[in-house]
Specification:
12 helices; alpha/beta; six-stranded parallel sheet; 290 residues
């Protein structure tokens, strides 16, 4: 069996029962279950629909996310999450660059790297070089004044952890940020790159080895081995090209508000909902949220 999940843009509550019934009937589905009234619903179908992606495009025009996945094993025991533009709404290095007066240049490199157009390690090294001499006090300033959390992240963490799941934050960003973000949201562990310091200023260098695409896969392997669970029990979420390795290896890989070239390589794409969507696709209803 396969589960079809439809999720409207947050709080717009535009999901209509007539629409769901029409799709359920066309695909020979079972009983409809509301996860959140007029916002998220699901039903099962016996086979994966041949026209899934054409219907997905129709739903996109209505600002509705459509996911079709195997029903068995969709509730996961571990969350593996990217940080920048995933658990938070910004790219930390871009915010630091704004403070350094090189924001436009760094943002262009960041966008190209996240879209897979540039080598991640080289792009990170180049961007960090542009931050040389920035006082370390800027990190706290950025955390307080510029960083905002992706809606639904706190609910996602609380709900999964209250149901026994483990949560790891794995970022191509920096430990100075993942430590604070991870602690705030309740992640069990966090991994990222180290900004090297000279005195009380950034040196313009990053500690080696750089945590990039392969390092995220390595952490997936390491943590699941430590927990004694298969990779199929992991739900991973990210938005950039350096997340694709872990998104493909995890049992469920979610491209959240992802770059188009990244989303095109993932079967689970969330373009309109927030992080609560990761609960809906696991079968949690809003009444189950912690």
């Amino acid at each position: 069996m396969f589960t079809v999940t439809l999720i409207a843009a947050p709080f717009e509550k535009t999901l209509d029962l007539v629409l769901i019934e029409a799709l359920r009937n066309a695909w020979g589905g079972n009983e409809i279950r509301w996860l959140a009234q007029n916002e998220a619903a699901e039903f099962e179908v016996p086979v994966q629909p041949d026209n899934q992606w054409s219907v997905w495009q129709d739903m996109q025009n209505l600002r509705i996310d459509l996911i079709v996945q195997p029903s068995a094993g969709r509730r996961k025991k571990m969350l593996l999450a990217d940080m920048d533009s995933t658990m938070i709404e910004q790219e930390c290095i871009d915010e630091l660059a704004d403070e350094a007066g090189v924001g436009d240049r760094v943002k262009d490199i960041t966008a190209r790297a996240m879209n897979g157009e540039l080598d991640f390690d080289a792009a990170l090294t180049e961007r960090i070089g542009l931050l040389q001499g920035l006082p370390t006090s800027i990190i706290d300033k950025v955390l307080v004044e510029r960083i905002t959390y992706m809606p639904g992240g706190d609910i996602l963490l609380r709900t999964m952890k209250s149901n026994g799941a483990y949560a790891a934050l794995v970022s191509g960003g920096f430990t100075a940020f993942t430590a604070r973000v991870g602690a705030h949201l309740g992640f069990d562990e966090n991994h990222a790159n180290n900004l090297l310091i000279e005195g009380d200023h950034l040196s313009g260098k990053v500690g080696l080895p750089i945590l990039g695409k392969q390092a995220k896969v390595d952490q997936l392997e390491k943590i699941t081995t430590k927990l004694g669970i298969p990779e199929s029990d992991v739900i991973a979420v990210g938005d950039g090209a350096n997340d694709l390795g872990m998104l493909h290896r995890a049992g469920t890989g979610v491209a959240l508000h992802a770059k188009p070239s990244v989303a095109a390589q993932c079967d689970v794409r969330i373009n309109f909902s927030d992080l609560r969507a990761l609960l809906y696709i696991q079968g949690y209803a809003a009444d189950d949220f912690a």
